[in-house]
Amino acid sequence: MRKALLVLFVLTLVFNSTIILGNDVPPLQKEIFEARNKVMPALVHIQPVVTDFRTGKMVKQSVVGSGVIFHADGYVVTNYHVAGKADRIICTLGDKEQVKAELVGGDPSTDVAIIKLDLSEYNGKLNVAEFGNSDVLQVGQYVLAMGSPLALSRSVSCGVISTTDRYFPGETRLPSGERTGIYNNWIQTDAAINPGNSGGPLVDLDGKVIGINSRATMFANNIGFAIPVNIVKEVVDQILANGKVLRSWIGVRCQALQDLEGWFGTDRDQGVLVASVATRSPAEIAGLEAGDIILEINNIPVSARFEEQLPNFYKKIADYPIGSDIQMVVQRGVENISINVLTHELGEIMGEDLECKDWGFTVKAITTQMAVENQLDDTLGVFVAGVKRVGSGAEENLGGGDIIREINEMVINNFQEFYNKYIELTDSEADRVLLTIESSGNTRYVLLKVDFDKISESEVNND
Amino acid sequence: MIRLINLLVLSILMIVSSGPARAYDFDYKSIDKDASKYTVIIDIEVEVSFGTQSTEMKNRTLGTIVSADGLIIFDGNPINADDPFSIMSGMQVNIEPKKIEVTLMNEQVFQAEFIGIDQFTKLGFCKIILEDDAKTVKFDFLKLKKRDNYRVGEMLTVYMLLPNYVTPPLAVDVGMVSAIIDEPEEFILTVGFNELEAASVIYDILGDAVGILTRLSNQGQSEFGSSHNGFGSIEDFMPLLGIGDINKIQKLIKDPPKKGEITRGWLGIHLQALTTDMAEFWNLNLAGGIIVNDVVDNSPADKAGMETGDIIVKLNGHQIEVDSEETLPIFRRKILEFAADTDVKFEIFRRQNGNVDTLEIIATLVKAPLSPGEAPDFKDNNFEMKIRDMVFADYTFYNLDQEKFKGVVVKELENGGWASVGGIYPGDIIQSIDGNKVTNIEETKNSLDAIAETKPEEVIFFVWRNNKTLFVNIKTDW
């Protein structure tokens, strides 16, 4: 009797489980399966070798991230912090085949990069995922995160959208140092996102990519962030067209007006408060001041009452064609005045790197943005990115952040001039090189003692 | 029989061990007689504050009366807060002596007032407060005997303070002269003493008080840009202690450094040591010198005509033998030790188009600019924040224009206070309050006092932080 009951019980179990896997799949499970089937084949496991110059030498490092194919020619979107500085890239596709890829372009400000798969030796069928619309997302909506968490490839996690416009006050920076998230808010989700998920798609139940997963919170459970796909689409279009994202820049930092409206005497939802104007920026040249409230740009009212509205305002300015003469109506005190600002190109956030192997340090070209951020008077010279712990630079107390203004008392205007001088002096095996250094407003000399015998010897030993 | 032999052996041993053959023989009876007159125990209560944190601490140390009216020296290092590294970015540790109690060896107890700490020797100074009816009291005090010709290997002794559960409170310690140092200053280096004994009186084998135990000053360590990375040096594990220049100590006793009062001389240049390698690179026949890297506008150096790139080779006719960053403090200290208003003669090499001209320049030093720790400050009890004036170092450090940029620095904040909750941070530079510009603590105080009259619900601060400005709305709760 007991045996019969057991058999019956087992049979029920088998029967039940066939129900789950059979035709009568519950609607939610079915939708998840369908969404999975649409995107999983386009999921890419990305293994770039990235270069890092911060330790005073060029260091190669193999990292792991995720990406998704969005174009039949083999274009894959991923994070800038995954592949933006890649030397070479190896990808594993949905069918576990491996192909090489190369970097097409990247945008640190939104943390988006595009790579192109080398399909010359690939015989499989390439699957392409579709982009959705991130403007219509709802809090609580089901989403799937796909990628390679902790390098475990082809993983799916499931959750809901926790919020659609997460704003991070203060400065968010990529591991390589660039500011990011300036032009977008983030989608927050509780679908598990771990290191390695970076660059992978966040997918809705229609099987469309609605975001690119890019950050998780350490020491927290299931607080992950994705870049909204509508931002990604614009960046992708620009990179495919120009190789980079072109943005206008005027040099203002703004602040939400909530809490300050009474004091400035503005109405609700009216105007954007200028908190800070960068020295020598187009905004300063045009006469914009901290405390000004921008009411209109080119006759269109603007407002940022809450900080979540700020990225959109910055984006609005960035989206004007470079060199636009934008007309602002500005409230200053009790007056409304009109100010015309000529936008400049935002340009590269960070400059090119060079390893000065014989001198024991690395340098970086100084971009306008680096000059603004470091309160430099100009972009002359080159930036010392890192100093090897043992080497000519370290011996003479050269430090990261120092600026090399002169070599042998000859002015170095830019990266190219530095490069030429470096090649010239290393080719001629100059064993004494005098650098004029500027750091925190002070100038000093650094006399490098370069020992060419020792360098070639150690290189032989290393080989 | 065996017992008898044992006894015999024992008595022989006793004779040997109580014999006169001790390695050194201080006459502690006579030293003690002197020392007990002027040695005191000091209990200092200090308030230590740091950013938004503050706490009280007690420090117990040995002191020495050095004048008949009750001036006392002690080791100021534990309560010294003037560290330029920590001063920037609001990470400054501020130590304020609140109460000083002095106990003489005859168990008389006095209150004392804090005077200041010398930045080179780190000697602390305080003075016994006498009641009106006791103003005529004369204290016994230390008389130092200047001595030359120390020998390496000779023994010295000091008193040290035992923990307060031990009686009697004092014990002696011995040390040995280990080197006679010439640079960066004349210094009799010792081994055997430890840092807790700093500022103690040193006695030699004759029982004479010959000096004060001080640290070999390394001004370089407390300057910006000190290059301390990688391996530790001997000073990290063992401070270099010994007998410093007695004349300098006597000068300090005559005119103790007062907190917030500056007499140090200032030239107004950024400087660098001319290494032998650099001299060689520039084809200069020099064993050392000072490279002038920058001349501060309107400074004594600027007015005297010094230029960026000049090399100072002589100071008041004396050759400068500074040839490394480590010896740079010698020159710095020489300038600082001149009083303000002193005329100083410099011989300068000026390199121009491959030629080297020799010039003589006379600069009249002025008072050194205040350090951030010395800047005048005040505490606003409504907003619960401490504000200080901006000083020269702030402008240099943040590369700000001294003419155009004005404000006051937030030195400290009370956690949970209005300012702290409202979003002000230590190190912020306040530029205006409710639209009124503030350029010094006086104006800030007036502004905040006026606000305390009208008691608004919100106050808008305009602050500078990390090269950017922003508005901060502080909600009040009167």
Report on the structure:
The complex is a heterodimer of chains A (463) and B (478). By secondary structure, chain A is of the alpha+beta class. Chain A is built from 11 helices and 31 strands. The longest helix of chain A has 20 residues. Chain B contains 11 helices and 27 strands. By secondary structure, chain B is of the alpha+beta class. In chain B, a hairpin with an 8-residue loop joins β7 and β8. The chains are: A alpha+beta (463), B alpha+beta (478). Chains A and B meet through β19 and β31 of A and α6, β15, α9, β26 and β27 of B.
SSE topology sketch:
The complex is a heterodimer of chains A (463) and B (478).
Chain A: H1 2-21, H2 27-39, E1 43-52, E2 59-62, E3 65-71, E4 75-78, H3 80-83, E5 86-92, E6 98-107, E7 112-117, E8 130-131, E9 142-147, E10 155-166, E11 172-173, E12 179-180, E13 186-189, E14 201-203, E15 208-216, E16 224-228, H4 229-242, E17 248-249, E18 252-255, H5 261-264, E19 272-277, H6 282-286, E20 293-297, E21 300-301, H7 310-319, E22 325-332, E23 335-342, E24 344-345, E25 353-356, E26 361-365, H8 368-373, E27 382-387, H9 392-395, E28 403-407, E29 410-411, H10 415-427, E30 432-439, E31 442-449, H11 452-462
Parallel strand pairs in A: 8-15
Antiparallel strand pairs in A: 1-2, 1-3, 1-5, 3-4, 4-7, 5-6, 6-7, 9-10, 9-14, 10-13, 11-12, 13-16, 14-15, 15-16, 17-24, 18-19, 19-20, 20-21, 20-22, 22-23, 25-26, 26-27, 27-28, 28-29, 28-30, 30-31
Chain B: H1 2-17, H2 28-38, E1 39-50, E2 53-65, E3 71-75, H3 84-87, E4 93-104, E5 109-117, E6 123-128, E7 155-161, E8 170-181, E9 187-191, E10 201-203, E11 209-215, H4 234-237, E12 241-243, H5 246-254, E13 265-266, E14 269-273, H6 276-281, E15 290-295, H7 300-304, E16 311-315, E17 318-319, H8 328-337, E18 343-352, E19 355-364, E20 366-367, E21 377-380, E22 385-389, H9 392-398, E23 408-413, H10 418-422, E24 429-433, E25 436-437, H11 441-454, E26 458-465, E27 468-475
Antiparallel strand pairs in B: 1-2, 1-4, 2-3, 3-6, 4-5, 5-6, 7-8, 8-9, 9-12, 10-11, 11-12, 13-20, 14-15, 15-16, 16-17, 16-18, 18-19, 21-22, 22-23, 23-24, 24-25, 24-26, 26-27
